[in-house]
Amino acid sequence: MTRPKPDLIKKTFLSIFFAFLIFILIVALWPIAAEDNTSKPKISAFPPPIDPQRVQDQDTMTWADYRPIPGRNWSDPSIKPERGFRLAVVAVDFPDQPFVITLPKGSDPFGNPQVEPIPREKVPQFYADFFTKPLEVNHGLNIHHYWMEQSRGKFGLTQVDAFGPYRMPKPYWWYGLNEYNQNKYTPDGSIAAGRLEKDCDELWIKDVGQDIRKNYDAILRIYAGYDETGVWMEFGLMKFKSKDDIPPEWGNPNPSMPRWVPTRYVEWTSWLAGSQQWGLSSMRQGENSGTIAHELGHFAFRLPDLNNNPYVQPYRRAAVGPWDLMDRGCFNGPGGPHMRWVVPPVAGAAGPAGLMIRNRMACGFIRDGELLTLSREGLAKSGLVVAEITARAVDPLPGTYTGLIVRLDGSEPGDRTPADDPATNPLSPGIPDYNFYSMEVVQRIGFDSFCPDSGVLIAKNKDKLWGRNGGPNEFNSYIWVIDAHPEDINMVDYVSPTGEKVMRTIADYRQLNDALFHAGLDSGSRFEYEDTPNRLHFYVVDVHKNKDGILSYTLAVRSLDGSGPQKRGVELKAPTNKIKAKKDLIPVTFVLKNTGQPAAVSPALHPSDVSRHLNYDLYRLEASIEGQGWKAKILNALAAVEFGKTAEITVYVLPEAGCSKEAILTLKATSESDPSKLSTAQTKISL
Q1: Nearest-CA neighbor of 669 among 569, 578, 541?
Q2: 390, 454: one domain
Q3: Within a domain: residue 264?
Q4: Whose CB among 346, 384, 509, 664 lies 3.0–4.6 Å from 328's, allowing a Cys bridge?
């Protein structure tokens, strides 16, 4: 056996020896290194905002976004409405257009139907049930359900009768090319002038043997094919590079005629899309229509349209957008406005928005005592008003309201907003003739599930439902939403066939997706709105959620012209104990006391009894900290406190790595009613 060389033995010994020394040093120094590491404060994030704005675009919504109202099913047939409504559903098709729903699944040029075919003789009852009963195919949402939910059982469908099917005497294009300068684009060179109602009703009366139209409150005429409103864009500008690129199968059957036609909002669409009918002033609806609840708003309650024209210049901002049925909120539903071509209509427009306060008032849906009504002139004399408002989709929680309104009363003009030129300001509400403000809460539950956000909705409203807003491209706007984000939303509408990203115009209704106000700081939205010309300041003070997940907000409003007879005061107290930091996020609690005193206020100052809502002051809070490497943050810049009572205000302190050993934390509270009344408190924090 060969013996190891002495040099190799020596080298091996030295390697082992030095490795052992290194190990000893590591073990000896480890506590020191660990101590140095723990001496540096651990970095921890501040708590999240109390009411973050979470805007979901319509394009990304699915049926998974629907949330039923807890503990209440308004589609339950055992719940009888106070006011019943009788609806006749009459279904007609055409010699050249069968019911889409009777075709093999996905077989027509538009890619419909989305379900297995229904026999022609069953089509009238299918659509009567689809629009009025909770079914698997409509995901339980229907127009009876909608109106029962909005009215809290005051209004619903009590009789729905189906008639037909009937075959119309002329081609579908004879009825569909009768509007928006389309009349001369017929295949045979005739001038289209058909009116579906006349021919449909003649067939219906002949079949029944008598005219029974007077037996119904409204007649829903379902016709084979499409509402042009749901296909003109998707199967026009969005599908073809230009009107000259439309292929024969989408063009006029007469090859000598153009393959395009003019349409309502833009220069052209494909002939196949443009030859469909537009609803206009009748409850005639194609098989893709999801806006029948909107049409019922016209027929049952005489509610007017609120919608603008988003495609023509000069652009005019939408009035209400996605927040009300009578504007483009009727387009709410899975997939948004570009999915309204689906048959049956279970995508865009399948889940319309609820009604705003103004329309609920017009329909008589708000019960006595549910609305807190204030006077602008009265606010200057009574002082600040603070109240709790519950989400509009449900009845007000105990001690709360469904909404708050402020009448723009006093000397004329009532609406003192300076007039501007809508031709140069696309955000102009037009003629300043609004009569009152409203504040309400939207929560994404029930039919509001497909609204883009939850939060506080502020709007100006008119007493008259009808009246144009003046200027070029004027339209009816008896409600005007105050946009918390008036800047351009800067989102793509669609990608054109050429690959170009087409942005949403400033007049697109989805510009108002982020309009809601939110409580607290860093929400992504605003928590206050001041209308200086009308001398009002509105506040979103706090947000609450009960055990069932129902939202309510503490809201406040005050006059800029007076704070009332109450004595205002405030006192802040810092923690009495010395605060020892634990090298992490530190909550520091101050106590804020309203040291003011209530005063007698005439009950005649406001239309509603506001006595219990005047016993508050509202304080604006500011936190600061002195000390290198220290940060301080409050989650809410507002606190409403009753006279003589206290509220705990938490300030979060965060020491960063390498910070000083001590810091001084300061909290300041200032009365919004009387800014001369303020208080400051300090406390020392040390590591």
Answers
A1: 569
A2: yes
A3: no
A4: 509
CATH (domain of 639): 2.60.40.2310
549 and 439 together in one domain: yes
Into how many domains does the chain fold?
3
**Do 347 and 363 fall within a single domain?**
no
Angle at which helix 143-151 crosses helix 292-301, to 10 degrees, equals: 50
Whole-angstrom Cα distance, residue 312 to residue 492? 18
In this predicted model, what pLDDT tens digit does every residue of 171-199 receive, in sequence order?
999 999 988 899 999 999 999 988 899 99
Indicate the helix (H) or strand (E) that contains 492: strand 492-495
Question: At 485, which amino acid appears?
Answer: H
DSSP β-bridge partners for residue 572? 592
Quickly list H helices, 39-163.
123-132, 143-151
3-state secondary structure of 649: strand
Containing structural domain, residue 348: 83-230+277-301+332-352
Residue 483 belongs to a domain? yes
Sign of CA dihedral 246, 249, 252, 255: positive
Q: Look up residue 349 and give its two tokens.
A: 């427009």
Asked whether 461 and 476 are in contact (CB, 8 A), the reply is no
pTM to 2 decimal places: 0.91
Distance CA 253, CA 186 (A): 9
| 509's tokens | 């209704």
What is d(CA 263, CA 589) in angstroms, rounded to the nearest whole number?
A: 63
Nearest-CA neighbor of 610 among 439, 450, 381?
381
Cβ contacts of 375 within 8 Å, gap of 6 or more:
406, 407, 409, 605, 606, 607
pLDDT in tens, 103-144: 999 999 999 999 999 999 999 999 999 999 999 999 999 999
Do both 485 and 598 map to the same domain?
no
Mode of pairing for the β-strands spanning 218-223 and 284-286: parallel
Q: Where are the beta strands (DSSP E) in 44-154?
A: 83-93
256 within a domain of the structure (yes/no): no
Q: For residues 147 and 69, is the Cβ–Cβ distance under 8 A?
A: no
Give the strand pairing for 455-461 and 403-407.
unpaired
Residue 26 located in a structural domain: no
Residue 297 in contact with residue 272, Cβ under 8 Å?
Answer: no
Beta-bridge partners for 529: 538
Helix count and strand count (H, E) for the chain:
9, 26
Residue 3, pLDDT score: 42
Structure tokens at 329: 């909120």
Clarify whether residues 608 and 547 are in a common domain: no
Contact call for residues 221 and 281 (beta carbons, < 8 A) = no
Q: Are 341 and 288 in contact (CB under 8 A)?
A: yes
Mean pLDDT, 10 residues at a time, the chain of 687 residues: 42 44 41 38 77 97 97 92 97 98 97 97 98 96 97 97 97 93 94 92 98 97 96 96 96 97 94 90 87 94 94 95 97 96 96 98 97 98 98 98 98 95 95 97 98 98 94 96 97 96 97 98 98 98 97 98 97 89 87 98 97 98 96 97 98 91 96 98 93
Torsion sign (Cα): 450, 456, 460, 463: positive
Sign of the CA dihedral with 480 first, then 482, 488, and 494 last: negative
**Type of residue found at 199:** D
CA 9 vs CA 2, 5, 14, 22, 588: distances in Å: 14, 7, 9, 20, 66
Rg (CA), the chain: 33
Residues 343, 369 within the same domain: no
Residue 306: both structure tokens together: 């609120």
SS3 content of the chain, % helix, strand, coil (to 5): 20, 25, 55
